[in-house]
Here is the input.
Amino acid sequence: MDRFVGQGRLEWWANQSICLEMYDIDITVTVDAVGKWRATGRHANALDATQREGWDFLMEMDPHFSIAFPGEDCGGITVRVVEAEDETLTLVAAPDWDGSVSVTFDLT
Here is the structure.
């Protein structure tokens, strides 16, 4: 396979047991001659105000998601998501990401 065009699902996991949110995306994945893949996409459905607020919060906290493709129950590939101003998503493989993140909340 050198190209996949279809749907996928981005999953944001708080830990190994709790998936906080899932977002369906239209995605295009290409694989070059040496096996390196690149992926771009868009949300399959426009996010409403509440969904957008949740998306922005998760992206600010940690832009790493698992990606699941059709037929998969949960994501197995960890990707770092970058969103452009036109809402195009770029997904970059993050194989060395260990799932830890340091977050500070200001509750004052």
The chain has a mean pLDDT of 86. The longest helix spans residues 49-61.
